[in-house]
Amino acid sequence: MHPNPIYRPEQQSEAIAIAREAGFGMLAVSAPNAAPMLSHVPFLLSASGTLAELHLVRSNPIARSATAPVPARIAVQRPHGYVSPDWYELDDQVPTWNYLAIHLTGTLSPMPDDTLPDLLARQSAHFEAPRRPNRNGAWTSSPLTPPQR
Predict the structure, then answer these.
(1) Is the pLDDT of residue 143 over 90?
(2) In the chain, which end has fewer C-beta atoms inside a 10 angstrom radius, N or C?
(3) Could you read off the pLDDT of 50-80 as tens digits, one per residue?
(4) Are 77 and 100 in contact (CB under 8 A)?
(5) What is the pLDDT of residues 89-141, one digit of tens each?
């Protein structure tokens, strides 16, 4: 949320719930002597908000450079919009922008390749469930041809 404490939710659990419901954000990491790297990622956030699980395609510059744990942040954006000074019905007002943003800060760590199928299955089940209310089960990778290495 906004850095000013008066604009933060009373309970951290509220921010965690918003981020979990969004399930999508901008991952940012820094590399020595380079510009910050950004990637838009879907993620699964644990109930406590202490673990965000995500997958980056191997060709992603962050995946190629993060061969060891690195500090990272996921920025989650929610509703936002311009606020005209005319809306205040008071003199001497300035325009502003109202927004809701949550930053998840932690360490990005590479995971073993054999954990990927489980993560992808859980992500698919999570994101497909609301889109398939009248179908049996979520999409699965079972009919796909295994990737060539």
Answers:
(1) no
(2) C
(3) 999 999 998 999 998 878 899 999 999 999 9
(4) yes
(5) 888 889 988 888 999 999 999 998 899 889 998 998 888 877 766 666 666 67
* Structural contact between residues 55 and 39, judged by C-beta atoms closer than 8 angstroms: no
In DSSP terms, 27 is beta-bridged to: 39, 74
DSSP alpha helix (H) spans, 1-149: 12-22, 61-65, 116-128
Strands (E), 15-128: 24-29, 37-45, 52-54, 70-83, 96-108
Cα end-to-end distance, the chain, whole Å = 42
- In angstroms, rounded to a whole number, what is the distance separating the alpha carbons of residues 97 and 3? 14
